[in-house]
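Batch job 17 of 40 flagged for manual review because the log was empty.
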Amino acid sequence: MPKKLNPYLIYPLIPVIQLKLGLFRKIVEIGGGTGEQSLPYAFWGGEVKIIEPNEISCERAANIYRKYGKNVKVINESIFDTDVNNISDSDIVICEG
């Protein structure tokens, strides 16, 4: 009888599989800080956008993505001030903290 797969090992791979299948591409991270949370999505082929009110964090996010050769659109605004179009065209929205 085959062993049952551990869902805790499979769960982290779901976004990778979905990106590779083209089920989603556009990721927005709200309050993304320096962007480490969404960086894996960029490595997996996603188009990442970070909305962050802290100017220093925005600069660091841009530098981190540049260091790894990944494109990112960094918007230096509060979520309360940003245009709804910055979020509405996204497939995934990450908002933690």
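Reviewer: the log was empty due to a logging misconfiguration, but the result itself is present. The chain has a mean pLDDT of 87. Unflagging and moving on to job 18.
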